[in-house]
Amino acid sequence: MSKRTMKKIMVVILSCIGALLLVAITSLFIISGIFESPKYLEPWQKVYAQKFDDPRVRLAAHGLLAANGHNMQPWKIRLDKDDPLVFYLYADSDRLTNEVDPFARQMMITQGAFLEYVKIAGNELGYKTAVELFPEGGYNEQKLSESMKTKPVAKITLTKMKPQSNPLYDAMFLPDTNRAAYQSSKLTPEQISQMEAINTDVNMSIKIFQDKENIEKLESYAMKGATIEAGVSRVMKESEIIFRANEYQKNKYRYGFSVEGQGTSGSMRHILQGLVTLFPSMNSGKAAADFFIRSTRTSVDNTPAYAMIITNDNSRASQVKSGMLYSRLILTAHRLGFVMQPLSQVLEEYPEMKEPYSSIHRDYTSAGATIQMLVRLGRPTKEVPQSMRRDVMDLIIGE
User: Fold this and answer.
1) What angle do CA 112, 115, 119 make, to 5 degrees?
2) Mean pLDDT of 271-294
3) How many CB atoms lie within 10 A of CB 200?
4) Which residues contact residue 5 at a Cβ distance below 8 angstroms, ignoring those fewer than 6 apart?
């Protein structure tokens, strides 16, 4: 066979391979749902809240942008039927993550995160918001799930006022979590002071660490927590169940995890979504556990600072207030050009995490105090996509 013939054959073969690759990639894009309109991102648009006439709904539409555990968005809103300026926030016990959050501590932090976004949006929209926590009393802890259905976390009362520009408002529309690598630059003393100054509650504190000793110690805790969690199959299964593999699922559920959570965007997002849809094992079992550990390692290896929110006790009210403080911390960090990522595993209260949980509390708190949040903090190396959000009307419940 002549060289010329061989060359023609190779050209044909390469053309066939190229055509097959094109078909395969096109198929992955279609399976991913590339032509599906991402309705799950609509709440991130500033005009979204404006389409609702009721100011309570408009404020709730801002609240649902807040950070929340497992992106479960476990909020319910009851509008007072007699007073058009009063509404109630309930924790949605149907969205509890019992394996990873057995005492619903993270659930309460999530409620606080929502309330702070409502308060900030209230200033901007011209409403003073008075928040009364547990207006009908505390939960029955022995029947927690049932109690959450009947007792509100907060009563929110609005008073019309002149709109006031809030410097944190615009930051509400940015992704609350960035899991990518951070730049190595440290915070200045002035930046640390600005972040610590947002706390005015004597029963809480914000601590920021960026010295070598604490960076290494907290990195070790983060890795230990991730490694333990990756080895607890029931906890990993809980996350696997709420993973949304493609655009169709994201539009259907509008909560939970997706590939964007690791910062995947653009064409690669659709390729990966198509692959995970075809091969679900890519996001389950050992593959998911190994990926979780690797991504945590990448995160902590590129972290210049850590921050903690610590409360003097672990009451339900303190948990909620720590969530409100956490929202202010996120938004203040954004305003200063920083991003954050919670490293909550070592703070979780299931049995397998008992040893590192106790150890980190011995190292960083006094007796009776609780670390409510541990986050990494730094300047981003890249922007990350926004996560799924539910339609605000899905949060509204009747009497």
Assistant:
1) 140
2) 84
3) 8
4) none
pTM metric for this prediction: 0.93
Per-residue pLDDT reduced to its tens digit, 27-73: 777 888 888 899 999 999 999 999 999 999 999 999 999 999 999 99
Query: Rounded to an integer, what distance in angstroms lies between the CA atom of residue 3 and that of residue 15?
Result: 18
Most distant CA pair in the chain: distance in Å? 91
**Order of strands across the sheet that contains 396-397:** 127-133, 154-160, 86-91, 75-79, 396-397
Q: Which tokens is 209 given?
A: 């660490």
Query: For residue 382, which amino acid is it?
Result: K
* DSSP symbols for 150-191: HS-SEEEEEEE------TTTGGGGS-S---S-B-SPPPPHHH
Identify how many contiguous H helices and E strands the chain contains and give both numbers. 12, 9
Strands 396-397 and 75-79: parallel
Q: Which pLDDT value is given to residue 262?
A: 67
Q: Exposed, middle or buried: residue 29 (CB in 10 Å: 0-12, 13-18, 19+)?
A: middle
Q: Are 112 and 319 in contact (CB under 8 A)?
A: yes
CA atoms of 118 and 115, how far apart (whole Å)? 5
| Residue 15 to residues 7, 8, 22, 27, 322, Cα–Cα distance (Å) | 12, 11, 10, 18, 60
Residues linked to residue 155 through DSSP beta bridges, in sequence order:
88, 132
Asked whether residue 3 carries a pLDDT value surpassing 80, the answer given is no
Residue 395 pLDDT class (50, 70, 90 cuts): very high
Radius of gyration of the chain (CA): 23
Q: Do domains 40-172+386-397 and 177-378 have the same CATH topology?
A: yes
Asked if CATH classification 3.90.1150.10 holds for the domain at 177-378, the reply, yes or no, is no
Arithmetic mean of pLDDT, 81-91? 97
CATH class for the domain made up of 40-172+386-397: alpha beta
* Separation of alpha carbons 33 and 30, rounded Å: 5
Query: In whole angstroms, what separates CA 149 from the centre of its chain?
Result: 23
d(CA 390, CA 393): 8
Q: Could you give the CA distance from residue 23 to residue 26 in angstroms, rounded to a whole number?
A: 5
The pLDDT tens digits for 345-376 are 999 999 999 999 999 999 999 989 999 999 99
Q: Where are the domains of the chain?
A: 1-32, 40-172+386-397, 177-378
